[in-house]
Design a protein that fits this description.
Layout: E1 5-9, H1 16-27, E2 30-33, H2 54-62, H3 65-89, E3 94-97, H4 103-106, E4 114-121, H5 125-134, H6 141-167, E5 171-175, H7 181-188
Parallel strand pairs: 1-3, 1-4, 2-3, 4-5
Helix pairs in contact: 5-6
């Protein structure tokens, strides 16, 4: 592959981090997550004894779905120029992944030597993955409420990304329950797998 930069966007739990790590390993280059650049209230669960910060609880407990979507989109747009764009414009060969890679912003780039794709989850995939990772069944009703709100936002973001990628004629890969990293790498066009 001759691309210097691989951008992999999409919703939480679509498999961005797993795919990005595999691509970076295959191409022997660095992998960075936009989550490491600036945090928005993320997953509303922690492994004991770690407690959820109060602002994370308040975010999911108090905001409507529309408010959560506006909050996360505002956060991602505010990250673009000071944090994400310098990595994209750098000279390093890199795999950059994260939900902050909004199609509307990536579409404005000179895409020479850049491969950009978004993972979009098929119906039911995100909800199942979120419940498994959060150990949903073992949580109390208050924690389940927060996880349900997070899942609602993830599903809304998945729909948003799917619509935006289609509107802008950008590349997307649909992820199903049985989709493997090897499948995604082949579809992405990265020769070989780690």
């Amino acid at each position: 592959m001759t691309n210097r930069l691989f951008l992999i966007g999409g919703p939480s739990h679509a498999g961005k981090s797993t795919l990005a790590a595999a691509v970076a390993e295959c191409l022997n280059c660095r992998c960075i997550s936009t989550d490491s650049l600036a945090k928005h209230p993320g997953r509303p669960w922690r492994d004991p004894p770690e407690q959820l910060p109060p602002h994370v609880v308040e975010h999911y407990r108090d905001l409507s779905l529309d408010e959560m979507m506006q909050s996360v989109l505002t956060h991602y747009r505010s990250m673009w120029t000071p944090l994400v764009l310098p990595l994209i414009e750098g000279r390093e060969r890199l795999v950059l992944e994260g939900s902050a890679l909004l199609p509307e912003l990536v579409a404005q780039l000179d895409t020479q030597n850049i491969s950009a794709t978004w993972l979009v989850a098929a119906e039911g995939v995100l909800g199942r993955r979120i419940k498994v990772e959060s150990d949903y069944e073992a949580r109390d009703p208050d924690k389940r409420f927060l996880i349900d709100k997070f899942a609602q936002r993830a599903l809304a973001f998945n729909r948003f990304i799917n619509e935006e990628v289609s509107r802008l004629s950008l590349q997307k890969l649909e992820v199903g329950c049985e989709t493997s990293v090897d499948d995604l790498m082949v579809r992405l066009g990265v020769a070989g797998s780690p």
